[in-house]
């Protein structure tokens, strides 16, 4: 079972500052540990006030449910995650509703947090149609903080973050190198690099 380390707490403090910063609406989250990025983001969102309004926006329910289950289970082994468009899931005693941004991109949204996850298809090669839908969804999303969470973002050139220029106000990297040193070492060895390109 994982526990938070200082980098997790620093990351969540940065998200909290962004939530209260009127000049920031959209943040992009990078980092090699997909589970930690998602878990930390949801954990912060559920703690922001007594009754936070949280919407997880995805493209595919089943695939995303598997990703959320994996992330939550790494910290809370006995948790069971299940959701659909009418049934939210519960995390930290808070309801998290889920919709499909690629189908509901025209709907006006007003939440405390809108978490778009995963967004890999948008910034990967050939994701132009998804990008236009994402831009539409964000333009109709008036949530206090919109969080875009990446997956599989360690190889330079695989994802084109420049496609999000003009959309993202701030970008954060969750540093999991001390928490997962062996995984980090394997990634660098596979990339034949001494660091990940956005570090």
Q: How much is the average pLDDT?
A: 92
Structural category = alpha/beta
Helix content: 25-40%
Strand order, largest beta sheet: 3-4-2-5-6-1-7
Report the radius of gyration as a whole number of Å.
Answer: 16 Å
Low-confidence stretches: none
Order of helices and strands: HEHEHEEEHHEEH
Strand content: 15-25%
Sheet with most strands: 7 strands, mixed
The structural domain count equals: 1
Question: What's the N-to-C terminus distance?
Answer: 26 Å
Total strand segments? 7
Indicate the topology.
Blueprint: H1 6-20, E1 26-30, H2 34-47, E2 54-58, H3 61-75, E3 89-91, E4 94-100, E5 113-116, H4 120-123, H5 128-139, E6 145-149, E7 170-173, H6 181-191
Parallel strand pairs: 1-6, 1-7, 2-4, 2-5, 5-6
Antiparallel strand pairs: 3-4
Overview of this protein structure:
By secondary structure, the chain is of the alpha/beta class. Helices cover 36% and strands 17% of the residues. α1 (6-20) crosses α2 and α2 crosses α3 (61-75). The radius of gyration is 16 Å and the shape is globular.
Précis, in short:
By secondary structure, this protein is an alpha/beta fold. The chain is built from 6 helices and 7 strands; from the N terminus they run αβαβαβββααββα.
């Amino acid at each position: 079972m994982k526990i938070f380390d200082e980098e997790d707490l620093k990351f969540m403090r940065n998200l909290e500052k962004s939530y209260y910063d009127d000049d920031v609406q959209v943040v992009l989250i990078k980092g090699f540990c997909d589970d930690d990025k998602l878990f930390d983001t949801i954990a912060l969102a559920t703690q922001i006030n007594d009754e936070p309004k949280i919407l997880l926006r995805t493209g595919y329910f089943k695939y995303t449910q598997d990703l959320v289950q994996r992330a939550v289970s790494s910290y809370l082994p006995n948790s069971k995650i299940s959701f659909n468009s009418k049934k939210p899931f519960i995390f930290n005693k808070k309801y998290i509703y889920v919709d499909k941004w690629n189908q509901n991109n025209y709907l006006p949204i007003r939440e405390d947090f809108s978490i778009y996850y995963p967004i890999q298809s948008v910034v990967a090669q050939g994701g132009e149609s998804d990008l236009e839908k994402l831009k539409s969804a964000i333009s109709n999303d008036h949530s206090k903080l919109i969080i875009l969470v990446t997956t599989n973002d360690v190889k330079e050139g695989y994802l084109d973050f420049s496609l999000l220029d003009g959309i993202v106000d701030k970008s954060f990297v969750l540093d999991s190198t001390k928490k997962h040193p062996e995984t980090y070492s394997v990634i660098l060895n596979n990339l034949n690099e001494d660091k990940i390109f956005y570090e």
